[in-house]
Amino acid sequence: MKDLRMAITGGIGSGKSYVCRLLEQQGITVYDCDAAAKRLMRTSATLRQQLCQLIGNDAYNSDGLNKAAVARFLLASDDNARAIDAIVHPAVAADFINSGARWMECAILFESGFNRLVDRTIVVTAPEQLRIERIMQRDGITAEKARQWLGKQWPQDEVRRLADYEIVNDGQQPLLPQIETIIQSITI
């Protein structure tokens, strides 16, 4: 395979994590940006110091990262969310580059600017009603709450327009042939 860096994105309930598991079954290691952010916030002394300066000393407690305090701060305003992102995103970007991984999974690929770290982008899409059903089942929440989560993300059509490739995860079209077609197109 060419030395291209690839990214998988898609909104909540689209099935991007499932597609990444299928890629891993094909022998492709996929760097998970969400998991990396959580790990770095737990383990990086630099992030710990910066988050404590931003949020206050209650950002961490004896158990480590105080998720409740961080969530309260994050949800209090868009400015707070941007301030946390300004600390965490550069650390995740550097970690991805240093990891040697060629593929990443990033829910907010375009919003975060992480698309600049890769050569090609793939969006996983699904019909809205199917996404709502998946979110409800996975998280045990109401359709209204699932719609609220969808409303916090960029519209699927906008992400589709920006992506280089699309994998349709509608429960009808098989995923493996779509994945194989993309892999073949980047190896030529």
Mean pLDDT: 93
Main sheet specs: 5 strands, parallel
Q: Give the tally of β-strands.
A: 7
Give the ordered list of helices and strands: EHEHHEEHHEHEHHHEH
Alpha carbon gyration radius: 17 Å
Structural class based on helices, strands and sheet pairing: alpha/beta
The backbone outline, from C-alpha atoms, is: globular
* Largest beta sheet: strand ordering: 2-5-1-6-7
Strand content: 5-15%
Helix content: 55-70%
Number of helices: 10
Topology:
Elements (H helix, E strand, L loop, with lengths): L5 E4 L6 H10 L4 E3 H11 L1 H11 L4 E2 L2 E2 L1 H10 L1 H22 L3 E3 L3 H4 L7 E6 L2 H12 L3 H9 L4 H7 L2 E4 L6 H13 L1
Parallel strand pairs: 1-5, 1-6, 2-5, 6-7
Antiparallel strand pairs: 3-4
Describe the protein.
It is a single chain. The protein is α/β, with parallel strands linked by helices and about 190 residues long. Helices cover about 60% and strands about 15% of the residues. It contains ten helices and seven strands. The protein has a five-stranded parallel β-sheet, with helices on both faces. Strands 3-4 form a two-stranded antiparallel sheet. Strand 3 (about 60) and strand 4 (about 65) form a beta hairpin. It is globular and about 50 Å long. The termini are close together. The model has no long low-confidence stretch (mean pLDDT about 95).
